[in-house]
Structure formats: C-alpha cells, structure tokens
Amino acid sequence: MMAKHITAILLAALVAASGAAGLFYFAGAQEQAEITVVDNQPQPGSQIDVAGSNNLANSDVSIYSISTTATVQNQSNQTLPESNNITATTQNQTEDDDNNNQTATNGGASVRVEEAEAEPGEPLAISGDGFQPNVLVQIFINNVQITNIITNVEGSFNTLVVVPTTVTAGSAQVTVRTEQTNIFKNVNIVQPDERDKEPATVRFTSVSATDNARALRGAPVAVFDAGSDQMVDSGETPMSLELEEGTYSVFYSDFGSFDFQSAQPGRWTDTPDGGSGLITVREGRNATVTAMYSELPSPPPPPRETVNSITLRAQDTDGNVLNGMFATVYDDNGTKVKQEFTQLQVGNLPPGTYRIFYANFNDLVFVSASPGSWVQTPFGGTGVVIIPDDGKDHHVVVTATYDRMITNAHEQFNIRAPLDIGGDIFTITSNKTHPEGPFIMSGSFGLRVTDEDPLRASLSAHIVSVRGDSNENVNLPSQKSRDHDTLQIVDLDPQVARPVGANSYIVSGTADLLLNGNMYSDDERIQVMVRGGDDLTPTNIEIEFQGEHNNSAAHRLETLYGAVTSGFQ
After folding, report:
1. Which residues of 255-294 are buried (b: 16+ CB within 10 A; e: fewer)?
2. Do domains 103-189 and 308-407 have the same CATH topology?
3. Cα–chain center distance at 401
4. Does residue 404 or residue 83 have the better pLDDT?
5. CA gap 141, 438 in Å, rounded
6. Angle 314-316-317 from CA coordinates, rounded to 5°
7. Quick one: which of 147, 284, 445, 536 has the fewest CB in 10 Å?
C-alpha cells in the first residue's frame, strides 16, 4: 500500500498529543493503519506535517487529536463514531475537576495538591494516600520529571516540589505515577507580579480539642523556611509573624498535659513529641494557623513520703525505766542502722522490716519486748518490727522488759575489765562519706579500761589517710598521689564500759578528732566495740564516731576496723 502525506490544521487540543504515533484501524481493513506527527513541538493553530501508512488506496482520512492514541476509520466504508464515543487509552486515571478540592483519586489511592495556583520557581506541596507501602512514586509537571519518593509503611507520602521556571502561565499537569497507577491533577501556573511583594501576617494559635475549643496559651511553635530548612522564628502561642510569600514548615510541640492532635490549614503529621506540617503563605494574605490539643488526664500524685521512727526503751518487771541498755537496729538486709544505749531513737526510716537486738547486762536478763515478734538468746533478745507502707506516718515505740537474775559473771562474760589492748587499724572508706575518696586509712590504736565502777578508761589512735589511687610510681596532678592526712583520736571521756554478751565489750563516751594536728571535731559521741574470736579472746575492734552536725567526724570517717595484736590478759 502507498503511504500518503496529509496536511492538517490542528486545534489547540492537538498540543497535548504532539509527537505521538497512533495506531488506527479501518472498518473491514486487514492491516493496521499507522500515523506519525512529524513536528513534535507544534504551537496552537500552527501547521504541521502528518505521515500515514497502511491506509486503503484513494480513501479519505480524518484525524482526531483526543489522546495519545486515536481511532481513525475509512469513511468510504463506515461512518466515524461521534467524538464523545472515542475514549482515551491511558488507564487508571480519575480526576476531580473541582478546583476547591485539590484531590485526585484512583481506586484506593489519592493525591492532594495543596494549592490550586503556583508560580514558576516556587515550592508546591503534594501528598498522597492509599498507595502500596514502600513503592517508588514519580512526580512530573508537564511531562518533566521533578522527583522520586518512596511511600511509607502506611502507603502515603508528603513532599515539596519546585515548579520548573520553564513552565509557562496557564494550566499545568501534575502527574503522580507508580507501576500500577497514574494520577493527574491540573494546577494553574501564574506569573509572579513584578512589583515589590508585601509580607503576610500569620498568626499561630492553639486551642483545646477536649474543652470546647478553649484557647490555650504557651504551646511551643517553631517555623522553618521549607526551601532552606533555616529557622525563621520560634516562640509560644499566641504568636504572630511577618512572613514573605513561600512555603514554611511548622512544628507544634506537646507541652504540659496537652498532646498535639491536628492543625489547620495545611497538611499535618503527628510526631512523638508534637506535630509538623507545611503551610503556604501568599503575598499580603494574612492567615491564622490553629493547632488543636487534647488534654491528657492528670497523673496520680506521687506517693506521700512518710515520716517514720523507732524508739527503743527498756524497763524491769516492775515497770521501772532502765536507761543504758545496749541495743542495735538493723535493716532487712542486715545492715546496721544504729547502735546505742536506751533510750534510743532512730528517725528518717523508710517503710520496711527492721531487726532489733537488746543485750543483757550484769544481772538484767532480757525477757520480752513489744510490739513485734521476739525470742530470747543466750545474751539478750532479738525481734522483728515492721513499719507498714500504707502512706501514713508511723512512730513505733518498742519497750523491752528485763528481769533481775543472779548470774555468774565470770562464766557469762569472757571479755571484761581490766583491758589494756593495742593493735593496727586498716580501713578503706567508700565514696559515700567522702566523694573525693576512696581513702585508705591505716594506723594504730590503744584502749585501756582500768575499772568499770568507778569508770576509768582511755583511747588513743593515730591514723594516716591517703587516696585510694595513690601510687608511688605515678605522680599526676589528678591523682594527688603524694597527698596524705594524719588523724588522731584523743581525750576520751568515757560514759559506759561493760561487756555486751559473752564475746563483746563496749566503751562509749565522747572524744576529739584532730586533722593534721588541728581540731576537726570536739566532744563528739564515739563508740568502741571490742569483739572476740572463736576462743573468746579480743581479736578485733571497731571505732565509730556518731555525731550528726555538718562538721562531724562521722562525715569524715566511716567505721574504723582494727585487729588486736597485744595486751590481752
């Protein structure tokens, strides 16, 4: 068959189909008819050359420019169908032409163009929903690819594209394309006004979504230029800004008991600590952006911190008060809380279980105590007292009852006066008492108890304290490796000296602590406990200051531990 050149005057609608090669069928024809537009950039109303082949010889041909593929029929054989019966072959395309609704849809997928008008070189916000998760989306403007984007796990996307400066004024086609879907949307391109642009006043506010849109003050808001990602300003609602024409990214933060829900206008996304969105500002068009917050329920108040104490008292079977009975309080982990003589008060105790020990003394033997559960031991009594965790204050008073019995003191107490012992002290303190530590404490001590009645006793101790990081081979300023302090315990004023059980002996009173020869703490309560080994001889000693003032020796030293090396008879 002969190819025949055809000259045609095309309407402006042909521009959308320029450069396309179409496949045409004649009624009753046995071969496909083909047509090619030679000029692929025609102007509306211009003359172009069209070439065709595989047509019937000497037949008339009509050309309709309605899509990228059109149907042409041999008029000599069959009348052409009316143009409204000819449909475009591009699939999966639906569009809502209502410019007030900038959403184009295709099945479950939809595309939203935030603005009906845009200027060349200006950003344009485009978002989509209902796509497959994690698929590639291509965005075109007038068949020029602008960007690629991947949908999120929910099958949606939100992006900002820049309208090419080559796009002329008039209607431009935005195409959102995936392997399964093509969605088109028309945007009106307007040329920017050459006169000076005036800024717009944008007011940022916030309201309660759960309290009849009550105005909220103090919602943190930050505004960024969407093109440069530079912060424009930040503050708290209500806030007003003078903004030039353009697109801005806005972030509202959660605050107080208020949680961000949504905002208008623009398209917004909830984030873990607030909400973000894009807004477009037009020249001289004032606007208000309002965020809606839901108010979270107030958390329950924290449990009340209770004030608790345990007071230890002692009495004989006739109800007479017995002062000076030795007692110890331990917590549930077995850690000593306090050790002193009755009447003894221990304050600032948290709720919990406390173990208490009362010691026998001379002819006074522990019989029972209340409240709590108690048992007798060979050298006193022990029991358990519970402070309930019920949000209430508890001040527990424990009263122990002693009976007077005739005992063989020499058989019961194996460590007793007179005492004249000495030995070595070696202790490593923790950082709890002195944060600059730990410190290594080493030295010697001497303890003498001449008589218990009348009481005559003396204590001396000489100790050197060095930092735990001390190293004779290293001299770094941070280590203070050469620094050391000397401490002395002097001027013991004894108040109690007596056996406590078969293998313990206690000396209690006040003493002074000297630091590098200077008075550090004077007349501070001190307690010395001498303990025996398997053969009930004095084998170790514990020295503990018990002051509570700020400059107390108890804050400088923890319990000093020593080993008895001489003097026991």
Report:
1. beebbbbbbeebbbeeeeebbbbbbbbeeeeebebbbbbe
2. yes
3. 55
4. 404
5. 72
6. 130
7. 284
pLDDT in tens, 277-299: 988 888 878 999 999 999 888 77
Torsions phi, psi of 554, nearest 5? -65, -25
Closest to 489 measured CA to CA, from 402, 557, 428: 557
In sign, the C-alpha dihedral spanning 236, 239, 243, 246 is positive
Range in 195-209, 236-250, 510-524 with the lowest mean pLDDT = 195-209
Handedness of CA 319, 320, 326, 327 (dihedral sign): positive
CATH of domain 103-189: 2.60.40.1930
User: Which pTM does this prediction carry?
Assistant: 0.41
Q: What tens digit of pLDDT does each residue of 219-237 get? A: 999 999 988 889 999 999 9
Specify the amino acid at residue 378: P
Instruction: Give the 3-state secondary structure percentages of the chain, helix then strand then coil, rounded to 5.
Output: 5, 55, 45
- Rounded to an integer, what is the distance from CA 279 to the centroid of its chain? 30
Find where tokens 């008075």 sit.
Answer: 519
Report d(CA 58, CA 354) in Å as an integer.
Answer: 116
CB 228 within 8 A of CB 253: no
* Residue 330, beta-bridge partner list: 336, 355
Query: Which residues, including other chains, have CB under 8 Å from residue 390's CB and lie 6 or more apart?
Result: 351
Distance CA 72, CA 87 (A): 13
Residue type for 273, please? Answer: D
Domain spans of the chain? 4-85, 103-189, 200-295, 308-407, 412-566
Compute the C-alpha angle 200/205/206, nearest 5°: 155
Q: Considering only CA atoms, which of 346, 305, 343 is closest in space to residue 324?
A: 343
Residue closest to 313 by CA, chosen among 337, 332, 341: 341
- CA-to-CA dists, residue 507 to 178, 545, 563, angstroms: 90, 12, 16
- Look-up of token digits 């440069």: 228
Letter for the amino acid at 169? A
Looking at domain 200-295, its CATH architecture is: Sandwich (2.60)
Domain covering 308-407 in this structure, CATH number: 2.60.40.10
Residue type, 363: D
Answer for the pair 445, 464: CB distance below 8 angstroms, yes or no: no
